[in-house]
Amino acid sequence: MNNQPAYTLRQLVSYFFKLGYAGFGGPVALVGYMHRDLIEKNKWISEEEYREGLALAQLAPGPLAAQLGIYLGFVHYGILGATLCGLAFVIPSFIMVVLIGIAYKLYGGLPWMQAVFYGVGAAVTGIIALSSYKLTTKSVSKLNIGAVKKNWMLWLFYLVAAIITIVTQTEEILLFITAGLLYMIIKSPPQWMRKPTRVTSVLLAGIGFWDFDTGTLGKIAIFFAKAGAFVFGSGLAIVPFLHGGVVVENHWLTEAQFLDAVAIAMITPGPVVITVGFIGYMVAGFPGACVASLATFLPCYLFTVIPAPYFKKIAQNKSIKTFVDGITAAVTGALAGAVIVIAARSITDIVTGVIAILTVISLVCIKKIQEPYIILVAAVAGLILKSVI
C-alpha cells in the first residue's frame, strides 16, 4: 500500500458519504462516478487499483458498487478505510429507505412514487447509459478501428457478456472467470504453463417502527445473509432472488409492495441493494431494516477485505494482470447489458425516451451540471406528465 496517499481518510469518507446521498443510477452509474471522481478528477486512486477493485468486486458475491467502494477505501487506509467508506456509502440511503418505509406504512401505498418514477426512471437510464459508455472506453478500449482491432478479444468478451446479461437478466460469474482465464492463457500464460515440469498452485406501532418478533428477525437474517453471500453481480442480479424469497416463499410482501420496493431502490441514491432495508422495514419495522441491511452487506464486506491484501499482491503479476483485464472486459460488458435491461423497463413510451435522451445531452453539453439536479427535474416532470397523461 502507498504510504503517502494524495488525500486524507476524512476526504475519502466524505466523498463516499456524498455518493451515498447524491449518487443516483444504480451500480452502473455508481462505479462510473467513482472512476470519474477518484481517478479522472482527483487522481486519488490509480487506474490499475480501480481495475483490480472492480475485478475483485465482480468475482466476489454481493452488491458491486458497495464492494468497489470498500476496496477503494482499503487501497491506502486498510481495514479502517474499508470499514468507514462502506458505512459512509450505505448509511445515507439506508436512512432514506427507512423514512420512505414509515411513509409507506402510514399512507398505505405510493401512487405518487409511480408518477415520480415515470420521469426519474428515464433520467436514470440516461445517466447509467453515459456512465457505461465512459467505463467501456476506459476498461476495454477507445471506439476507433485501431484500438478495437488491437483489443478484439476484450471486445469479444465484452459483447458476449452484454448479450448474455440482456437475455438472462443476470450476470454469470463463470463467464467472467472464463474470460479472464482465456485472456491470460493466450496473452500471458503463467510460468507453470510454459514449463510443465514446475507446477505451482495458487488458491486464489402505526408506522410499524417496532412491529417485529424475534422469530421473523431470525428468518430475515438467514435469508438476507444468503442474498449477500451467494448472489453475484449488481443490484440487477439480486432482484429475482429477493422476489423468490420475499414474495413467493415467505409471503412477506405482496407483488405490488415488492415492485414498490424496487422502484424506491431505483429512485433513491446509493446502492440499489439498499432496497433490502425497505423490505426489512415492511416485514419487521426498524429492527427488520437493520437486520436485513446488516445481513446483506456484512458478507460483501468480508469477501472484500479478507482477500484484498493478497489480491493486490498477486495482481502485480503479468499473468494475473491479463486475467484481470479479461474479467474486466466481461464485467463491463455485463454492466452495459444491464443498461439495456433497465432501459427496457424504464423507457415505456416516447416521453420517457425523450427524457432519457435529454439527460444524456445535458450531461455531455453542460459539464458542471450535477446528476441530483437532473433527477429532481425529472421527478417534477414525471409528476406533471403522469397527471396529464
Descriptors for this entry?
single chain; mainly alpha; globular
Describe the structure.
By secondary structure, this protein is mainly alpha-helical. The protein has a domain at 9-140 and 148-193 and 301-388. Helices cover 78% and strands 0% of the residues. It has 17 helices and no strands. The chain has helices at residues 9-22, 26-41, 47-59, 64-107, 111-139, 145-150, 152-168, 173-187, 191-194, 214-230, 235-249, 255-267, 275-305, 308-314, 318-346, 350-365, 371-388. Helix 3 crosses helix 15 and helix 4 (64-107) runs antiparallel to helix 13. Residues 196-205 have low confidence and may be disordered.
Q: What is the rounded Rg?
A: 21 Å
Mean pLDDT: 80
Gross morphology: globular
The amount of helix comes to: over 70%
Total strands: the figure is 0
What layout of secondary structure does this protein have?
Elements: H1 9-22, H2 26-41, H3 47-59, H4 64-107, H5 111-139, H6 145-150, H7 152-168, H8 173-187, H9 191-194, H10 214-230, H11 235-249, H12 255-267, H13 275-305, H14 308-314, H15 318-346, H16 350-365, H17 371-388
Short recap of the structure:
The protein is mostly helical.
